Amino acid sequence: MDHSIATWAILLVAAFLGGGLNAIAGGGSFFTFPALVYAGVPAVVANASGTLALLPGYFASTWGYREDLRPPATLSMGTLVAISLGGGAVGAGLLLTTPDDVFRAIVPWLLLIATLLFAVGPWLLRRFKRDSTENEANALVQGFTLAVVSVYGGYFNGGLGIVLLAAFSLLGHRDINSMQGLKNLVSSVLTAIAVSVYAFGGAILWREALVMMLAATVGGYVMARVGRRLPSSFVRAVVIITGAVMTVLFFRA
Fold first, then answer.
1. What pLDDT was estimated at residue 124?
2. Tens digits of residue pLDDT in 83-96
3. Exposure winner among 1, 49, 103, 225, fewest CB in 10 A?
4. What is the annotated signal peptide range for this record (predicted)?
5. Which residue has the higher pLDDT, 131 or 228?
6. Which pLDDT belongs to residue 122?
7. Cβ of 201: how many Cβ atoms within 10 Å?
8. Which among 250, 160, 213, 146 has a CA at the least distance from the CA of 12?
9. Interval 112-139: pLDDT, tens
10. Residue 33 half-sphere exposure toward CB, CA atoms < 13 A
């Protein structure tokens, strides 16, 4: 697929901004997915190719939050990674079997739900006053929630960070930097396996994705280092605003 210099510039800027946004809030596909669609790429292929483009940014962002990275209270890092791998593979397989028009129709609804979950997360925590005692049932709830979110992430990368932050918030995590580190780690793992499935299914435009990788990696690392110093209230506001804008744009698309 041939592109003009202007189109390539748009793809590179979108990848840089997408990698940076994923590092601090999630929702990097707000930039990469529309940019690829603008470049004439079908929706399913645009999602798969954009996901590959953002993958190095996830790894760079995880490294950027390395000082804050610690496992959830009820799950080991090994369990966290295993669940993320399994869910990401299942979600990617589902994407490859979804018709392009059906995928376009359900994307805005997925984003709407993710944004609302993150916005009301603190209120729900206060409302239900979760028991802080760690037990087997709580571990099962966290594992199941992570599995569902991983399937979502393997299916549609857009808003993945928002969904993960919402899930961690609802499960009682309160340190925003720790949540960011876990979000980036899980995103890296499930996206890596999802991209492998996409590649096997022939759903990736390699030239566009590989070029966009470079800009996304730089954006991810730079914003991860900056994001660690931002107030948690500001980061939360960025997540909610990003999710709202993404939802509106995809509903209007």
1. 61
2. 999 999 999 999 99
3. 1
4. none
5. 228
6. 66
7. 15
8. 213
9. 887 787 777 667 656 654 544 444 447 7
10. 23
Distance CA 170, CA 84 (A): 18
d(CA 131, CA 96) in angstroms, rounded, equals: 40
Euclidean distance between CA atoms 117 and 135, whole angstroms:
24
Q: Which residue has the tokens 């993958």?
A: 55
Q: Contact, 159 vs 115, CB < 8 A?
A: yes
Between 168 and 82, the higher pLDDT residue: 82
| pLDDT greater than 50 at residue 206 | yes
Q: Give the mean pLDDT of 219-232.
A: 77
- The amino acid at residue 188 is S
**Which residues, 6 or more positions from 139, have their beta carbon under 8 angstroms from its beta carbon?**
74, 75
**The one-letter amino acid at 205:** L
Residue type, 210: L
Decide which of 91 and 228 is more confident: 91
Contact criterion met (CB below 8 Å) for 33 and 46: yes
Report how far residue 21's alpha carbon sits from residue 53's, in angstroms, rounded to the nearest whole number: 14
Full 3-state SS string of the chain? CCCCHHHHHHHHHHHHHHHHHHHHCCCCHHHHHHHHHHCCCCHHHHHHHHHHHHHHHHHHHHHHCHHHCCCCCCCCHHHHHHHHHHHHHHHHHHHHCCCHHHHHHHHHHHHHHHHHHHHHHHHHHHHHCCCCCCCHHHHHHHHHHHHHHHHHHHHCCCCHHHHHHHHHHHCCCCCHHHHHHHHHHHHHHHHHHHHHHHHHCCCCCHHHHHHHHHHHHHHHHHHHHHHCCCCHHHHHHHHHHHHHHHHHHHHHC
